Predict the 3D structure of the following.
Amino acid sequence: MSRLMGPPDKFLPSEWKHANQVHFRSSEAERVHSERLAAECQRLIEESNKYTRHMQQDAQKRLEQRIQDIRFWRQELEKKFEEMVQEIEMLVIFKSRVEKALESCSEPLQVTLQCLTEREKRVAIDLVHDEVEEELLKEKEVIEGVMVLLQRTLEQINEQIRLIRSVKYYLEKDLQDKFQAERIDDFCSLLTNTSPDLNGGNSNFTSVGIAVTPEEWENLCNLNISKAEKEKNNSLSLRALVASLLEQTAADMRRQYEATGRAFELRIQETKTAKTQLENQLNGLLAEIANQEKNLEALKVAIAEKEAPLKVAQTRLSARSQRPNVELCHDPAQIQLLAEVKELANHIKRLAEALELSEMELKALVSRQLSLEEEIQVKTNSLYIDEVVCHQLRQPVVIHNF
């Protein structure tokens, strides 16, 4: 116990020195390690700052480059979008022209059909399949063909409008996406380390941007623009075709309408000429009927005038047949009286035959007169239909350029 409570043992000077050396070396090593660590941390800080600045600068450049890319494609898309809007407006104008052209075909077609119907009212020999009817049937065929062609063209224009509107929809959608993307990237490019309201948000960004690569993104833009360009070219071709079609169809209808008009004029002139000739024939026939009637009266008078001399001769012969005996002589007087009776009877017979022939001829002339008057009436009816009715129907019709 006394040992335990006694004074502590004393170290040797060598031990003291050794302990001091140990503390010195340990402290020095710790200081050197600390200095190295501090230098490494400083280097790490500087490297981290440099890397951060470099990464931020690179990210800023890439954001700016991306913004430029978006703006470039947005401008290209806007250009195509405006072209699609203008093309739709032009197609709508052409659609309106085609619709008006279709409407304007209705009146000429109805007039043509009415003319065909009216000309069915011609009678007798004038109900003929003439050049006018052929031209009217051609006119009907041309107008109906034009209407079918215009209807088909209208369907093509509607389909082209639908296709361009579809392209316009996708362009507009792409533009909206790019506008939003540009707004977001503009916001990102303006952010700095001292910007307010910074927040880390969701730290899991591994899935962002994987769905579409920049090449695919650019290809999609190109695809939309290519579709727009294709539909624009199709629309331009269609508009050129429609313009040519409208001009050609109007020219075809006008040409046929004029051809029908010329056929009407020629037919009217032919009918007038025939009617004039018939009227001249009728006038001559009426004069001949008057002459024949006079001839009949003359024959009747001549026959009547021969009856008295015949009766005189016959009475003389009858009286001389009463002469007695030898006085009943066949003398020259008897011979003359017999000859006179015979000749007068013969003349009366011939005059009666002539009268009968004249009466038959008069009946034939009267019958021919009725026939001519009927034919003139037929021509008058035909002229009324062609020159009055059809002319009034066709006069208001004007084939304008569509």
